[in-house]
Design a protein that fits this description.
2 domains; DNA-binding; HTH-type_TetR-like_transc_reg (chains A, B, C, D); Arc Repressor Mutant, subunit A; mainly alpha; homotetramer; elongated
Chain lengths: ~210, ~210, ~210, ~210
DNA sequence: GCTTAACCGAGACGGTACGTCCCGTCTTGTT
DNA sequence: AACAAGACGGGACGTACCGTCTCGGTTAAGC
């Protein structure tokens, strides 16, 4: 998750301050809230964190990398709730996701790094590793639980399975993001219900 | 679409060059392709357009507004093809849309201005007016055509109708954008078919 | 005194507004008082004069030429007073000259155009014609009156005469300017008396 | 002479480059020779000095302050020659001073900053400190030497003494400047002799 | 408990782009 | 033909950050 080489602690010398990392990431989120991506400066983050600019550059390559790390942590709090039915479970995750996206430190930073990633493969890979793939667990988990409950047929073909996971992920994440950030309409419970209904009927009908 | 007041030709003075507008927007797209959003500078755009920086600032408030206008034009070429069935029509639009998003001048700029819009209401409104609402016509048209064909029930409640249009729009646009820009996987014909199938079953199943 | 060609009124067409000239020069002096040379802009002068920028440029080549003309008029009010003795006459002129130099429209502009003239022969010539030579009359007049009174010997050699006029002029003008603008001390009556005494003794002693 | 506080090396951080100062002042004089005051730009000076524009602005508040410092150094080479008599000594200094004023880097800049100083008290003070007062030593020295030689009476009243020093200084500097820059006539040996004669007779005659 | 190498803060450095101001010129339509 | 209005290409301004580079001064591991 960090850009520093993990095995760089070979030789002696003063070790890096662990507190600095946390302070910097927290300062980054704070600055994202107050200033937004475009007006956030690394000098300002360093000052907020009570750290020299050099310390910051020693650990991250630039603004993009720093913000990816700062934002990634936000999504780790997503949980797949057990509400008894697939529909209710999906609804729960959708609402949680929408709630995170409503926070300014998330929306300010997330779209910006995605934009930057359109021209920077390393950054896109970092985003995928740090954020996207980490949350795909929710789709996999949800499907497994639904299969246990008998709500979905047991999948056999692993290729088709992967494709379906990816599709569902794109649909859910993409739709919620678009609703929240572009349409700028609230993703409230009523909307989550309508969306979930559409998604579930789609899944059941188009499967085989 | 421009920042100048359309009816501002009240008083005397040399009129603004119409050619400059086109040159600037074209230069902006060219620079987006070559440099991407973050390295695009207004000074460079002005030079490419053979125009003074002041001329550019006289017409647009900043980089965001300029890029919104430059990108908006790209989506005007979207057409609802008549392929005989709703499924095929949707597939066609999805592929067209994905093709535009695959062009660097679109993806470089679009996500960046959306990111900026999270902190700038005027910009979000401009995006909605210039880009989003303009393309909602496709959903409305498509539904009308499907109703004519008898593929979809005739909608009665206008409120529900609007909500459905918005939902479909969020699902289609959001999913394609996420697939293309975040997952960075090709939105090819096979994928478009799978996605369309999911969407249509969802629509039919969740309608009543 | 103007830069327009005097014989340019050959052909027909609308004649130039005479009022504009006066308005522009007055506006220039006003702007000199408020803003000083370096912050004075021709656009601002034009606005103050209620005139278009083009009108201004049609008549003067630039800021330097305009300010020379605007400032030159200030010195025309200098008079050689008849106070009964050469010493008193000189004192009177010195005090008048110091009073004009104390006015912001004079000091702001005069030194600036002199500075510019160090690299612009045409401008220096214009200054000499419009300002300097015009006021040498005072020295010539003063000497003639003193000779009539018998306070100075009748000069014979015209070359020496010219040289002396120039020297006196440099001494008087240079000293008053330096006292007023560089030393920034008041050129009051006491000082004028001391200076005049020095000058007169110098003249009487070094004459033959 | 610099704008930085001399005792500002209290805290840590990289110290300012001493070489940069010299390079900037030299580049300023070079640019004054080539371009003159009004066409001199700080960006160009920075480039010539091989220095970033920010480095320049970190040390000087603007063009005026920079040029004062650059020009001030030129006058430090003035020396009071010992030519055996007061008249010859004055002549020597006058000629040296005229020679410096004839150099384009001096005349281009000096009058311009004096012009600016008419509206800027801080700048005037800086000029007085950096240039004017520093050279008054010549008058004081010259008088002392003349008193030793018995060419001038020993002064008693210190107030009158100061006033006389100031008056002589204004006369000498003002006259030479006016001759050189406004009248634009050469201040050659013949002229210097005539002027010195006038000044000395004036001093001897008006003293008591 | 002494070395010693990497860390840290501070801040100056060369550089790039910003958005603004003014320049002097050039269209406009009007007088 | 001169005029008011104002857009135009151009150039410099002074500022803000960038990412790098010295500084002097900690600080902990390993001798």
């Amino acid at each position: 998750m960090q850009s520093r080489t993990p095995a760089s602690r070979a030789a002696g010398g003063r070790p890096r301050s662990a507190a600095a990392d946390a302070a910097i990431l927290a300062a980054t989120r704070e600055a994202l809230v107050e200033l937004g991506w475009s007006k956030l400066t690394l000098g300002d983050v360093a000052t907020r964190a009570g750290v020299a600019k050099t310390t910051l550059y020693r650990r991250w390559a630039g603004k993009n990398e720093l913000v990816v790390d700062a934002v990634a942590e936000l999504f780790d709090e997503l949980r797949l709730p057990d509400r008894g039915s697939l529909a209710a479970d999906i609804e729960g995750v959708v609402l949680q996701f929408a709630a995170i996206l409503a926070r300014p430190e998330a929306k300010s930073g997330l779209m910006a790094v995605i934009a930057e990633a359109t021209r920077d493969d390393a950054l896109r890979e970092r985003i995928r590793t740090s954020i996207v793939d980490r949350q795909k667990r929710l789709v996999v988990e949800g499907r497994a639980r639904a299969q246990t409950r008998g709500e979905l047929p047991t999948e056999l073909d692993p290729a088709t399975g992967t494709a379906t996971v990816d599709l569902i992920f794109d649909v859910v994440v993409g739709t919620v993001v678009h609703r929240t950030l572009v349409s700028a309409e609230p993703a409230d419970e009523a909307w989550a219900q309508a969306f979930t209904a559409l998604l579930l009927h789609g899944l059941r009908g188009s499967a085989p």
